[in-house]
Amino acid sequence: MCQTSVVLDRNGEQEKIMENITSLELLADGVRIAALFEEPREITSVRLARIDFMSGTVILVEKKG
To answer: Which of 10, 47, 55, 62 has its CA 20 to 30 A from that of 29?
Structure first.
C-alpha cells in the first residue's frame, strides 16, 4: 500500500495536513480527504497544485482572493 500525504503550501512553507490518505475528492471550493481510522476532513479555499507520485505527496495551495 502506498503511503500518500497531503501538504498545504502557503508562500513556500509546507504544512502536513494528513498522512496515509485513502481518498481525495475535489469539491467546488477545496478538497475532502480521508485516511484509515480518521474522520474525513474538508479543506476549503484551496486548489490542487500537483501530485508527486514518486514521493507520495499531494500538494495543495491556497486560492487567492
So the answer is: 55
What residues make up the domain containing 35?
5-62
The reported pLDDT for the residue numbered 39 is 94
* 13: CB partners within 8 A, 6+ apart: none
What is the number of domains present in the chain? 1
C-alpha cell of residue 20: 496515509
Buried b (16+ CB within 10 A) or exposed e, 5-32: bbbbeeeeeeeebbeebeebeeeeebbe
pLDDT tens for 23-45 read: 999 999 999 999 998 999 999 99
Task: Count CA atoms within 13 Å of residue 56 on its CB side.
Answer: 11
